[in-house]
Amino acid sequence: MEFHFTVSSSIQLITTAAGLTLALVLWNKSRDKNIANRFLSVSLFSISVWSMLTLLTDSTLITSVPHLYRLEIFFVLLYMPFSYLYARCAIDRKTFGVSDLVHIFPAVLFLLDTVPLYALPIEGKSAMLQHEVGGDVEDMGGWLFPAGYQSILRNMVIALYWLLQASILLRFYNADVRSRQIESRTWRQWITIYTGMQLFLFVPYFLGLIFSAGETMLFFTHLAAALTVLFTTATLVYEPQILYGLSLMTNKTLSEQALVATLLEDESADSASRKRTATVPRGEITLDRLKRIMEEDRPFLLSAYTVRDLAHELKISPSEVTALLDKLTGLSFDDYLDQQRIFYSQERMRSGDANRLGLEALSRACGFADQNAFTLAFKRFTATTPAVYYQSLKDTSPSSSKLKAHK
């Protein structure tokens, strides 16, 4: 079967290649502080596969791979939920939990509805494809729901999760300006444009229903999907720190906001300090300032503290910070911050804060995104878990010893 390149097919091919590459990069570059990128990776992977399968269906090449028939709907049902989870994790620092399995329910529901189709032998699928391809594939019914529901389900899911994502962004923008003062303005611009482009993934469908222009609006939907992926890819190329080098800082507590103010107010003191230490070698000044910043200001409590922020405090470049930490500690910047957080958490556990707050709240108070990240870092630096460590503290406390002696 021959395949003829058109402008539309060329755009879909480029979109698929760019989206799959970007999804792979984001997945591999994700770290504890960038865990949100895992959700964005799955989202972009889904829309890229959707674009590829749509191209196969539109060009009738799907008859050569009948097992992939209709799977484009499954992937598009995953796209917007994971995009919403990305925004939620990036802004609210909320990771994936068991209750979040509800977000993949529409995709699972579609698979259940098409079980009879996928149970057919390849000859049966090929015969059906020869008859059906060229029509509106998405309007074919399943064994649970009538014909026409798939288009409605797809667009309702996209619209619902777009509204949820937009509500998170709106709440983020309406937050106190001081809580976002060292936030990345470029990231805010990117996520705003990205969300705005997603609007055209479902609006054309409803306009097509109103004005009876389904084919034209379907073209705009495919174009919007392609532009969304290509825009995100271009963002990664020209502003890589936005997608895999950015640690977001939102919803800071009052103590965190006070810490930001302290860091800013420290600038005047720095000037006087530099004058007093003008004759001391620069390396010693940098080391002294690093110790003072970590011990007195505790910037590691900020979940979004970056190597650029520390470089600004030390008055050196980010690359010099990396080299300094490697020389002094043998750790990367992220690992060094986690180490400082673990030391701080141990201090707080020794003071009894774990009993008062609980480990979940303590993990956030120490600068971690959640208890899972806290536990992983704690085990990495202490070879035990926070719960076991805290229990050992209680077992060796004076009150515990007296109680055992009494027994």
Question: Could you describe the 3D structure shown?
Answer:
With 407 residues, this protein is mostly helical. It folds into two domains: 7-243, Rhopdopsin 7-helix transmembrane proteins (Up-down Bundle); 254-402, Arc Repressor Mutant, subunit A (Orthogonal Bundle). It has helices at residues 7-29, 36-58, 71-92, 105-113, 115-119, 122-132, 149-173, 185-198, 203-211, 214-238, 240-243, 254-276, 282-297, 307-314, 318-328, 333-350, 353-357, 359-365, 371-382, 386-395, 398-406. The longest helix is centred in the middle third of the chain and has 25 residues, at 149-173. The protein is elongated, with a radius of gyration of 27 Å. Mean pLDDT is 77; it is low at 134-138, 176-183, 246-282 and 400-407.
Q: Output the CATH class name of the largest domain.
A: Mainly Alpha
- The 3D shape can be described as elongated
Number of discrete domains: 2
Order of helices and strands: HHHHHHHHHHHHHHHHHHHHH
pLDDT averaged residue by residue? 77
Query: How much helical structure, as a percent, in the residues?
Result: over 70%
Q: List low-confidence stretches.
A: 134-138, 176-183, 246-282, 400-407
Secondary-structure arrangement, i.e. CATH architecture of the largest domain? Up-down Bundle
Tally the helices: 21
Largest sheet, if any? Answer: none
In CATH, the topology of the largest domain is named Rhopdopsin 7-helix transmembrane proteins
How much strand content do the residues show? under 5%
The Rg value, from CA coordinates, equals 27 Å
From the helix content, strand content and strand pairing, which structural class follows?
Answer: mainly alpha
How far the N terminus sits from the C terminus, by CA atoms, comes to 85 Å
Total strands: the figure is 0
